Structures are given as C-alpha cells and as structure tokens.
Amino acid sequence: MNKKTIRDVDVAGKRVLVRVDFNVPLADGKVADDTRIRAALPTIQYLLDHGAAVILMSHLGRPKGKVVPELRMDPVAARLSELLGRPVRKLGDCVGPEVEAVCRALSPGEVVLLENTRFHPEERANDPAFAAQLASLGDLYVNDAFGTAHRAHASTEGVARAMRERGGEAVAGFLMEKELKFLGEAVENPERPFVAILGGAKISDKIGVIQRLLERCDRLLIGGGMANTFFKAMGFDMGESLVEEEAVETAGALLKQGRSRLVLPVDLVVADAFSEEAHTKVVAPDGVPAGWRALDVGPKTIGTFESALSGARTVVWNGPMGVFEMEPFARGTFDLAEVLAKMEATVIVGGGDTAAAVRQSGLADRFTHISTGGGASLEFLEGKVLPGVAALSDR
Ligand code: ADP
Ligand code: MG
Description:
The chain is α/β, with parallel strands linked by helices. Helix content is 38%, strand content 16%. The protein has helices at 35-49, 74-84, 97-104, 121-124, 128-135, 154-165, 174-188, 207-216, 224-233, 248-258, 299-309, 331-342, 352-361, 374-381, 387-390, and strands at 15-19, 26-27, 30-31, 53-57, 89-90, 111-113, 140-143, 170-172, 194-198, 219-222, 262-263, 268-271, 280-283, 293-297, 314-318, 346-350, 369-370. Strands 5-6-4-1-7-8 form a six-stranded parallel β-sheet, with helices on both faces. The radius of gyration is 23 Å and the shape is elongated. It starts with 14 loop residues before the first strand and ends in a 5-residue tail after the last helix. Residues 200-201, 205, 224-225, 242, 294-295, 318-320, 322-323, 325, 351-354, 374 line the site of adenosine-5'-diphosphate.
C-alpha cells in the first residue's frame, strides 16, 4: 500500500484525531450491534499503548445537518468504554471553543468521543473551514473508517487535507489498512486461479464491478437477481422475475466478452408470488413458467459453482444468490457460503447484504476477510479512487 499507516508515524505524546465508523444500529438508547466498535479497537488500543491521547469522531445515522437528540453518540461512548475498560468522555459537539479546550488539555491515555459529525451540514458539504476546525483538534489524523472512505466529507477527506496543510500527517488505521490490503490485492495481484462470484439484485448497480472483475478473473460466477437479466439477454422468458430491461443489452455484451469465463446458474427456484408462503419449484433457466419468478439459484447450480471454484486460490464474492431474507429462497446463498467456508483459498466478501448473509450463516470466521464497507467495497472493487484514501499521506 502506498499510503502511510499509524505504524509509520510517531504517536507518543501526540493528540491523535481518529475518524472511525461508529455508525451502529441503536435500540432503546443502547448500541444494538457493536461489531463496528469492536472493529476499531485494534487502532484505538495501539494508539493508547503507544502513548497517544485519542480523539474519536464518527457520523451516526442521518440527522441531515442538525442536532437530533436520538442520534447523539452517548450510547456509543458507553459501549466503547466497556470494551476498552477505561473512561470515554463524550463531548457536546465536534467543533468549537469548548471542544478545542478539552482536546488541548488531553493527556496520554485519555479517550474522548466527539459528537455526531453529521449534526453539521458542513460535514457532508466537505466545507473547508469546518474541516480545518476538525484538523485543529489533533496533531495527527488517522482514518480508520473504510465504510465512508468513498464519500468526500469533511471528517474523511477535507480533514486529511487540512491536517497535511498545517504540517501534520494523515494516515490509515489498521482496519482501513486491512480492507485496502485484502480488497486491493485480491483484484490487483490475486493468487490464481482467481474466481469472482457476483449476485444481488441489480446489474445496473454493479456494471463497473462486473466489467473490472471479468477482465481480471479466471472465472466469473453469476447468481441472484442479476442472472435473470443475463438469461433475458439469451432470449429466455423470465416470467415475473426481476429483470432490468435497460441492462439487457449490457448483459448481452458481457456474455459475448466473457464467453468461456462466465458461469451462469443451471437451475432456479421459482415461486408464484414474492412471499414466504408462495408455491415453489425448481426449473431450468429457460423453463420459468408464465406468472412465476426466479428468487434463488437451485441445488444443481451450487454443484456447478462448487466445480467452477475447485482449485481456486482467490475468491471474491459480492451479492447474495437469492432473496436470502426469506427462508424458502435463502438456501442458494447459505449453501454457497458453506462451499466457500470449506475452501483453502483467500476468500473475500464485499457488499453490505452479502456480509450480513455470511454473518447470519455463522461461518464468518472461516472467511479470510469480510469487508465492513458496503458501498466503499464495491467502489473499490470497481477500481474507483476512494477520496478518503486518496487524501492520506503518501509513503
Ligand atoms: P450487496 O449489498 O451485498 O452488494 P445487493 O444489495 O446488490 O448486495 O443485493 C442484495 C439483494 O438482492 C437482497 O436484498 C436480495 O433479496 C436481492 N436478490 C437476490 N436475488 C434476487 C432475485 N432473484 N430476485 C430479487 N431480488 C434478489
Ligand atoms: Mg445491498
């Protein structure tokens, strides 16, 4: 990686401003799922162990540029304090004279959490003056929020530039480093054979990803709703299935371009309604009955995919194989997760829904890396420059 990380800088005695992704689900005024807080712990603990004072900041939910009391960071500070085993002081704002005074007076080993950055409209507007105010709080900036690195906001992009303009460093934290390493290496320099698996709802969301992976992988397996549009391009009648008419031409072009490398489902679970109570059956892709819809890949397809995966050394998976949120259409996704969990290969999962499905499968710890950033992981796989990464100090 060509960006500096916290290992490349001296943090002892410094006040370190860290952008984390603490955008966690809340319920009854408490943190309902602390996965993202835990994911930031290695960076926070490293900084504390190396004599830094830590100033944390994050957005939470969508307060739309004003103070929304239910979206204050207090429950996050409470949970983080439990996890760290030391006090975490939550400040009333993320900028301003009071916040500046507290940050100036911090001693090594102290941790503060700033208030929700999105209480200020300047955050999403990437306002330079606001970013400079944030930067003034620390001697050094660390970005450990991969999940928002694809957004040029004040706390992700503007602050990094502002910190460097005032002579400080802007570096990646461990979580950010891990994401960039695994997602980056998988696509830039994969150990081969390299197999990509794509699914999910729509082709149009992921054309860039499909194209880039198709150029680089040895095989590309396609499942989920997006397979329907490929079948439509092959001239099949897909009944009531989700088909993107405006993407049929693109799918046809990809079929031509991909030829031998593309692997499509050989059977589909179809239903007579979009419902858990629907009647279902398994049909060939050219056999979807009128009025029925394809909601999962069938059992033969998992066998086909398993063969296509055999011997692979690197696998990237984005997109569920079916409507895994409904039990009758979840099997393709979970069976695939099981196949991947058994493989002796680097297996990387990107995409918000796919990551959720893998966690639900209970097999998460058998995967090499599950990206914490949904949109960011897709943009990264697509080869786009993430503004929050680009703004960091070069090696
Ligand atoms: P990710 O967030 O991992 O990138 P997507 O958002 O692209 O994945 O796709 C996930 C969604 O795709 C899920 O909500 C799932 O229900 C839906 N989906 C998968 N297969 C189908 C299908 N055959 N028909 C309709 N929706 C589908
Ligand atoms: Mg999604």
